Amino acid sequence: MAQKKVKILERKQEVLRSLKSFGTQIYNQLDQGVFPTVKMPSRSTENINYDPVLRQFILGEKNVDRSTRNIRHIKPFTQLAWVAMFSNELTSQRKTSTLRDVYYSAQAYEMTFADQQESNNIITDLETLTGFAREDFNIFPEERSAIFGDLDIGYTVPGYEGKTVNLTSHPDGVLIGPAVTSAEFIKTTADKVIAIEKGALFTRFIEENVHNKHKALLISCGGQAPRQTRSFIRRLHDELGLPVFILTDGDPWGMHIAQVIISGSANAAHLRDLNTPDAVWSGVWASDIVEYKLPTDPLDEVDIKRLNELARDPRYQNDPIWQREIKLALKIKRKTELEAFSRYGLTYIVDEYLPTKLEAAKGKK
Amino acid sequence: MAQKKVKILERKQEVLRSLKSFGTQIYNQLDQGVFPTVKMPSRSTENINYDPVLRQFILGEKNVDRSTRNIRHIKPFTQLAWVAMFSNELTSQRKTSTLRDVYYSAQAYEMTFADQQESNNIITDLETLTGFAREDFNIFPEERSAIFGDLDIGYTVPGYEGKTVNLTSHPDGVLIGPAVTSAEFIKTTADKVIAIEKGALFTRFIEENVHNKHKALLISCGGQAPRQTRSFIRRLHDELGLPVFILTDGDPWGMHIAQVIISGSANAAHLRDLNTPDAVWSGVWASDIVEYKLPTDPLDEVDIKRLNELARDPRYQNDPIWQREIKLALKIKRKTELEAFSRYGLTYIVDEYLPTKLEAAKGKK
Question: Whole-prediction pTM value?
Fold first, then answer.
């Protein structure tokens, strides 16, 4: 897998090239005596469409221009150029930062943002312009998830180049941060990925040896999986050829945690490869509530409203399971949680439920 | 440090003994033909006092009896006996669980809890009765924080016995979960602990080599540090003799994150060793806002209300810094964040602020 390392380093080069090309464009326009202008796809709602082939949201044909000829555009144009410059610094110096940090760092350059929302927006502009995610520019979110399982990775971050570690080395799991997401995959005995909504279940799975029994890499999403974790899952699927199974609570919020891993979010319609279209939502389904006689809570009004929204969402049309389970949830008016299986003993979810679900998914393929 | 391992295993034995002794007491009472009864300290507000010697909240002299002679006590008594039995299973089988899990597991035994609040309460009863924290009974919370730094630990969890790992092995950090908190400390070159409120700063500190430059073990609290992390910090202080410095945002919520690490919470008045009285809150102080001309936000009404509450809290009387900083914050009516130092460049907090604060703390001792 030596070419993988090349791929990661090549991507970093492409990121830097995209920034340089933006800068070059501005200089060329100035040399030609024209007002610098950029054109990028519009991110307004009417320009966001679900693409059934790519199985994610994409931006349509509509473009927006940002021209320094227009006095109202000068501020956002300058902010965009600054964010590109700052991203170039981060990426070439191999330092990481956060959305919050970028907002404050602007002040070191006397660059003004009214608030963090404004700087976040400009960072999304840079993503749209270049097609790279902010994580590619070393701008990371605060939230972290974790991984555990038999995978050797090779770090590429400063001070760790050439170091190979196995992701079973710490039985509590390793954070998925800038170092893990920029690592190359060396080797694995795993033949699947299991992504789990909750940290507590992740720990239970490690204790019950699921990584060995089911040859699985385990991922704790920590609720809605951060973007870097979703793109990491995509890499595990694409580069290692591993099928991905997702376990969430049996409620509309759990369904959507799974769906965003599978189909991405509208907010990221301008980006690719953050989602894993072939990933499978393995449960907890509304039909599992019935079949396993699980303890439940009643759906409240917000849950019902959310289920009706999901039923109309184009991402929920791509597999009949979604509509079936939404309909059933609305019919039985109940929801449940992964922990509910503990009513049959702490290991039931690992000994009985998980194997059944993995077997069922195999039959379906 | 071979005696440390003994200490961890001995503690597990003590935990099991405390459960056995509770069970034995019930059997003896039955043998003697009396209604089983337990006595434990009351956790009602008027029985919670701040102890200036222990520098934490403790329970007073008031006791409550729970007697099976009283029909209203039969249910909570039975629940308590069940929780003790279940904790004994968890501890002796070396499985971990969560508060949520315990609630559902009860159903496997046809033990009824009206809701999770009720089962949480009974678990706190067991803590009060035995003096051990629920983590000692292998009941863990969902939240996780992380650690990074030159510390060799020896795992004691099943499958990892005798394995020693160094906590710099993963540059994103390692989760502080059941395996890390039950590990023995083997050796370290660190001479201090730095606990940081936010994951993003934790990552920045790792990238900027703070662990080497300042010989520090770095801990990411992830907001309010979970109980297991607070008790882990206490162990780092007591067993390794390391001073502890805490960095939080410069607002009442950050102050209280530091204070709970130092002085504990009223909710844990029935327990010991979850707090580190000698730990030092190093910033961000209101006076740093002035001194470093940091970007700020105005205090809102909730912040002001909270600052006034803190000013009256007995924990805030033990060091003049607290009252001084509360007073100043109320005067300048501003708050700030750790990231605000980025206005002077990304590394300013590491290159300038941190060394100044560590030096100041040294002078004070």
Answer: 0.91
